[in-house]
Predict the structure.
Amino acid sequence: MIYQMTYVSKVADGVTLSDCKAIAAHSEKNNARDGVTGCLMLCDGWFLQVLEGAIGAVNRIYERIIKDPRHRYPTILGAGYQMQRNFPVWQMRLVHVRDIEAIAAVIRRYHASSAFDPISLTSESCISLLNDPMALEDSNRKGP
Ligand SMILES: Cc1cc2nc3c(=O)[nH]c(=O)nc-3n(C[C@H](O)[C@H](O)[C@H](O)COP(=O)(O)O)c2cc1C
């Protein structure tokens, strides 16, 4: 069994894409050491993150994360045990959605309205969004 936590937060003012890449790179190293995997999505001024691993390791990371001034209002969408990891090969993959319009159809799949309001996502919808091929494709596009 693996412990999984999903939360969302607002990107703090002044935090750039290169700051987010640095967060992901540093997280990859720490999480590899701690046996934690997951995904960090940057979308429309929000972070959506899934952390999965041993409960103690996930909670220790989350305690550090909530003190980090690079984001605000961290809100847990869900946490609990499950049979296997959703992101077994990613120590912390950064998925950057460049154009929210490009994934509007994806957002509508997980929301009642097309307005992007991650706080109203269930943790299951959040994980599906992070895994969505269209969101990943937008993230992989070349661009600023
Ligand atoms: C949105 C966000 C996600 C983060 N995710 C992780 C993470 O998955 N793992 C991690 O170790 N640190 C993560 N951090 C960074 C932590 O807040 C903290 O700066 C870092 O863990 C400190 O690492 P150190 O003890 O090696 O200096 C994240 C920070 C932010 C703002």
About this structure: Residues 26 and 85 are 21 Å apart (CA to CA). The helical segments are 17-34, 55-66, 104-110, 123-131, 133-140.
